[in-house]
Design the sequence.
């Protein structure tokens, strides 16, 4: 039998179309997504049927983990510095320009004010590690959380308060935070939830 | 596609010189590799959806507002929810009856629990809003009209007023679930209040089926 000659075909694949698709996808992701903020503790928010989206700027977010540690973050760096200054004033601590610079780059803060100087002196990799062990004191004797909120609000009256708490947080902690806010006459705030699909009746 | 054809000296045919055809192929594979890498990075480091939020207004605890200034809730319209530990929820209507432990009812967060009770109590408003929703779907009314009407129905006179009280043992999820039920059941008037010793007594009394109250009578 004679061998059938198979003509050699070039295996070159034109990647232009593929490239088009990937660039398109890339553009989509870049435009629609927002970066995840680094949070010191893992928080699973409870689901709700509410469909209101959170506003983008001027947010004072309060992060509460399931053991009751409270952390805060502000989205504007100028607010961060001003708030740090006024809270420092309240407790008689002045921060150097370098410390301010370090503070404004923090994604989340939550250190008792007396430890703040030592905390800011650390490298950022170390800061991430130990931040989860701290938390802003909220007890009634030394309610630094209240001072932080008060000063932040004084520096930027447009701030909206958003509470992001873990679903297993005991109500005792939430009550404490809500009472502190109530004392400051902050009666309007947002509770961050994740979407749960349930037919509204 | 990804090639550039250079046709040098197209018009010089008469010159007799042989022309060379260049065909420049560009390999896009590394470009695709890089794009894929970037896409992977973006998919891992960003969140697509913005988180949802619930807006709540808490009552001001300003000492200047006396009880007379506040709207007193009619006992017939009041429903008090007590969120206890272990994902259980109790409710009573109107004034608490401390003598009868059965005045407190045990319910659940499931659809057949507290939701069906609240829906029954708020049946008028729920049905009206259902009609409105249908109208909105058929584009008979605008969104603004719809929201106006809904808020009017929700603040209507005969709608129930729900007071949510949570024990320290309850979790944050319980609170959100209770607030969620308010939205699902179209209840416009609700408030988160501090739990009173009386409410704690009611729960304890219910759990011990009345023997807890018995102690106080004998002493």
Sequence:
């Amino acid at each position: 039998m004679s061998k059938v000659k198979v003509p050699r075909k070039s295996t070159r694949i034109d990647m232009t179309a593929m490239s088009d698709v990937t660039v398109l996808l890339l553009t989509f992701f870049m435009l629609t997504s927002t970066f995840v903020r680094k949070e010191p503790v893992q928080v699973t928010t409870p689901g709700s049927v509410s469909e209101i989206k959170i506003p983008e700027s001027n947010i004072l977010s309060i992060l509460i983990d399931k053991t009751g540690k409270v952390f805060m973050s502000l989205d504007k760096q100028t607010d961060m510095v001003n708030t740090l200054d006024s809270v420092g004033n309240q407790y008689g601590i002045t921060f150097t320009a370098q410390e301010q610079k370090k503070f404004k780059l923090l994604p989340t803060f939550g250190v008792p004010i007396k430890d703040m100087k030592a905390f800011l002196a650390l490298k950022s990799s170390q800061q991430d590690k130990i931040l989860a062990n701290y938390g802003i004191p909220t007890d009634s004797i030394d309610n630094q959380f209240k001072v932080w909120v008060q000063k932040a609000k004084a520096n930027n009256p447009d701030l909206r308060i958003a509470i992001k708490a873990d679903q297993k947080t005991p109500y005792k902690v939430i009550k404490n935070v809500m009472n502190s806010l109530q004392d400051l006459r902050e009666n309007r705030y947002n509770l961050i939830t994740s979407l749960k699909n349930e037919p509204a009746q | 596609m990804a090639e550039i054809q250079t046709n040098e000296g197209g018009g010089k045919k008469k010159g007799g010189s042989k022309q060379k055809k260049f065909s420049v192929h560009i390999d896009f594979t590394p470009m695709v590799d890089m794009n894929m890498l970037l896409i992977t990075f973006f998919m891992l480091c960003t969140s697509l959806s913005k988180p949802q939020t619930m807006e709540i207004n808490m009552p001001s605890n300003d000492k200047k507002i006396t009880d007379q200034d506040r709207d007193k809730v009619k006992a017939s319209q009041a429903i008090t929810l007590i969120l206890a530990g272990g994902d259980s929820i109790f409710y009573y209507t109107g004034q608490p009856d401390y003598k009868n432990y059965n005045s407190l009812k045990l319910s659940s967060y499931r659809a057949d629990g507290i939701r069906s009770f609240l829906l029954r109590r708020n049946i008028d408003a729920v049905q009206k809003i259902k009609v409105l929703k249908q109208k909105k779907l058929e584009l008979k009314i605008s969104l603004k009209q719809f929201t106006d009407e809904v808020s009017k129905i929700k603040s209507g006179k005969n709608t129930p007023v729900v007071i949510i009280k949570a024990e320290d043992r309850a979790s944050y999820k319980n609170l959100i679930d209770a607030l969620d039920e308010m939205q699902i059941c179209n209840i416009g008037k609700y408030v988160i209040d501090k739990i009173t010793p009386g409410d704690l007594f009611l729960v304890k009394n219910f759990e011990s089926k009345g023997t807890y109250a018995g102690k106080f009578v004998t002493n």
Observations:
- The first helix of chain B runs from residue 29 to 45.
